[in-house]
User: What shape does this take?
Amino acid sequence: MKYQFINDVIALSSVEGNFYIELINSNVVRFTRDLSHASRVLSLAREAPRYSLKEGDGFLDIIGETFSLRVFENFYVDFMNKDGQNLLTETSYEEDECFPRGDNTLAAKEGHIVSGGEDYAFIHSYSLREGMHFYGLGDHTGPLDRLGYEKINWNTDYPQAHEDDVKSLYKSFPFCLISSKNGYFGIYLDNTFKSVFNFGVDERTFYFGATAGTDDHYFIYGPSPKDVVSRFTSFAGRLPLPPRWSLGNQQSRWSYPSKKSVEDVVAGYEKADIPLSAVNIDIDYMVGYRVFTVDETRFPDLSDFSSSLKKKGIRLIAILDPGLKVDPDYDVYASFVDNHLVAKENGKTYVNAVWPGDSVYPSFNDPKAREKWGEYCARVLSKGVSGLWCDMNEPASFKGPLPLDVDFAGESHAEIHNLYGYYMAMATYEGMRKFSSERPFVITRACFAGVEKYSVIWTGDNQSNWSSLQMSLPQMLNLGVSGMPFLGTDIGGFGGDCPAELMCRWIEFGAFSPFMRNHSCAAARFQEPYRYDDKTKAIYRKWVYFRYRLVPYLYDLFYEHSQNGLPALRPLYLEYPDDPSVSNLNDEFMLGESLLVAPVLSSGTLVRSVYLPKGVFYPFFGGEGKKGESYYAEKCPLDECLIYAKAGAIIPLYPSMTKNLDLEPEELVLKAFPGEGKYLHYQDNGTDFAYEKGEYNLYSIINHDGVVSVSLLHKGYRGYKRIRVVSPNGETFISLP
Ligand code: MIG
Assistant: This one.
């Protein structure tokens, strides 16, 4: 087996061509066919770890500190943990003989979604082993464990219902987390072209591949799932601390088309006594859907209006669509076209259609286009808007899909397509960073892995039905382990009319969703909570209140994410990786490591089964501890969501009167449960970047069976006036110097 070293890279050559293996650190290895291929989204910190090589007959062993590889002459790779136990065995890719695909030309003609027939430039295929589970891959639908499904990364605005077997949705995260008997590991395919991940549909192999571009991929060794997610996000990027107000309750609708309609929403919320932190304004605020314009007749004096709302702790978030209306009198269009900052076809500006009619597409992959976009963002920001919501950036197109060879600043649509939303979010984030002193708040629909550096996401156009609610949980959990911590679904569902019972159950789950926004489609029944009957209103109010109490805990989870890349909402296997009962648990989740939540996700359900993992768990609102590794049948009336705290848990809460998140309460409540526990609490002004200069507090909290002590690890910010400890021993107060 011929090899040589090129700097720290092992370069292999054979009749198969060249193949390069680069150990990035002791747990991460890169395989590429082209050493000059640069990642679009990763920032690698190369550590030159130690390893040794051993030549065998027809193979080369690479023995690292935590894993080893056996590379064969055909460049197949076997991957082992440090005890030599197998993680992956590469095998040849063969079309399934048992279930060959039929002829689908007729079905395709009728418009059915058909699979197969795609030409992949390369495919890596591995033996499927007993006990393997597949997670991650972003927001594709389906159960938590993707075993038995095939998904295609090609950002798609899919208008029909998002059933579990839909192959492509808005986002591409070509990263998966795999559980095997011998440990957890991840695979990241560093390729932005259309790619496939097939998780054992043939019951024999698992494979991934891409239609074009360079074969460049990574193995990320665990052994725990948290290790894998932490290591992947250390390269793909993590979410900077969000503004505190963005953790509040948001209301949206396609559309609130006028100042009056927004005032009505605010008044409706006030009258129903439900806290509100932001209203999202959809496409109808613009003049003829021209992005960066505001229709002054419908939104007169927007700056005054937004500052009056801000005084109440309510922000405005405005939607941005990428398509620029073809209109020479529209300066945004003119300046993008004149400066060659839009997509072209055969040297001429490429035109398709979106909401404004005929439109052109900014080439967001070009830094000059991003800069210009950022400057236009300043126009909307100057009107007091606090957040920008990027939609239609798959990119969507009403006159058929963009041809693959449409040219974006010298790069093909085929390569840029999956990155289009990523770069639009980046441009918007950078614009906000430049033209506002507050922390940016950007939401995006389409994106690629690593977008958490710039943006929050929502899962797009779901439906007001129970299956959408059920699916949103595994969808969010898989996004979380793909690196995306700040996310949500349209609460109440986007398409269709949301019945009262569904709304109650959705808000009980939505109260834990990091991005908490009720949104609905123009054609659907109005679904603001205050429109519902008194009982539904009361349930909605109860859970929004609870959410506002939980804000310090959520904020701590974002601090934790900024340090270790873990999501706030966690599948149970992330905390209990060795428990086989949780490997495909689709209706429970952990919020951080201390809270277990079991929402009701089906109609007519007043009792549900809850699995508690190892340890003892306490019902959050009081009651006896329950021993884990067992199932319980638990009552959950319409106004209840089951929440349990781990023994020894410490949960920081705001006092119950907090409604305006711009006004930080002077008191912090620490709810301590029986048992032994430790906790880190983070506090800063929640608005700007002063924390980067040390203006924050970090508290170390210890719980000895309900006796709580607090010490300051870092002091750089005004503290709480007092800390109230609530434990089974009663209430005590702690004051810090
Ligand atoms: O073609 O702006 O997913 O949230 O309300 C529809 C109107 C365009 C799709 C988004 C949705 C938004 C809607 N948009």
Summary: The pocket of MIG is lined by residues 254, 282-283, 319, 391-392, 445, 460-461, 519 (CB under 6 Å). The chain has a mean pLDDT of 96. The two ends are 67 Å apart (CA to CA).
